Amino acid sequence: MINRLEELAHKLLSYIDSEHEIYLYPHTSIDGDALGSTLAMLVALRKAGVKARFLYDEVIPGKYDYMEGLALIEPYPDRIDSCITRQSLALLIDCSEPSRTGRRQQLLEKAPQIAVADHHISEGHSGYLRFIDPGAAAAGEIVYDLIVLMEKITGRDLMDQQISVMLMTAIISDTGRFTFSNTTQRTFEIAAALMPYGVAIRDIVYQLFDLSSKGRLRLSGHVFSTAEFYLQGKIALALVSQSVMDVCEAQDSDLDGLAAQLRNIEGVEVSFLLRELNNGTIRVNIRSGTGFDAAKFAKSMSGGGHARAAGTTLSNISIQDAGHLMVEKAGEWLF
Fold first, then answer.
1. Same domain flag for 202 and 241
2. pLDDT for 159-195, tens place per residue?
3. What pLDDT, in 10s, does the model give residues 85-137?
4. What does each C-alpha distance from 263 to 224, 260, 270 come to in angstroms?
5. How many helices (H) and strands (E) does the chain have?
6. Domain endpoint, select from 183, 209, 235
7. Which domain does 183 fall in, by range?
8. Boundary (domain end) residue, out of 184, 209, 234
């Protein structure tokens, strides 16, 4: 009996030697898991003889420059007529909601068929070929299993050094270099299976976690010196306005990990890092301990994520009012 992941693998491979194309859709504000998983899937599909494309309309953080697959990403076009004609299947990776694909949603929703490979719990929509495994530490684990299945079905060797580096990037990114609570025995088994392809874990960890910038140094100083604490230190809150980003000459990627560092402060159960975007919306990053379910909290505010790491976006509210709202709502959850 074929399972859901095998069904997805067979569906993807049904486009071998076809003129029709599969388009891949990671979420906006791309991270290491979404990027590494999508690029690995893109390369594997092309090696299998499937026409696949990855269109993106945001700046990819420079820390990912070591991945060769970046050269395959195409800019999202202003006119999508030809893409609509050629797109036969849309595959969402590391997300399951079209709204998380930003401007690309207009092309995604024109696809005759939509599939999902994700590890975030979601209500979803009927009619999708969905494979969601909340037990997977990263979407990279799911994509690894898909590629192994594709090798079995086609009899071709698809895994290589390039794909392995991208999958290891995905896994290391979403497990915090194998230290987050989502890390499982399966995570280490997959990592071990990738190692023979010449993956340099130390180099990946350095690029993702250790390499810094002047902007990040300045931004870190601002976040840690202005953070506020509420409810006897159980809640940590930091606000980053667009003007602060400009003064620090920082990029969005310079915020990576700062919410987790706030959460690591003794006594903090949940931390909120709020980032004011150019369009006035507020992006909220949430990190929590075992006594606070970040995913459920984010979902209550139209967001999502994992139990220990989640997020949401707020509109029509100032960053100060958004901060007060987070503290008020979190206080209700903690008591």
1. no
2. 999 999 999 999 999 999 999 889 999 999 999 999 9
3. 999 999 999 999 898 899 999 999 999 999 999 998 776 565 689 999 999 99
4. 12, 5, 6
5. 13, 12
6. 209
7. 4-209
8. 209
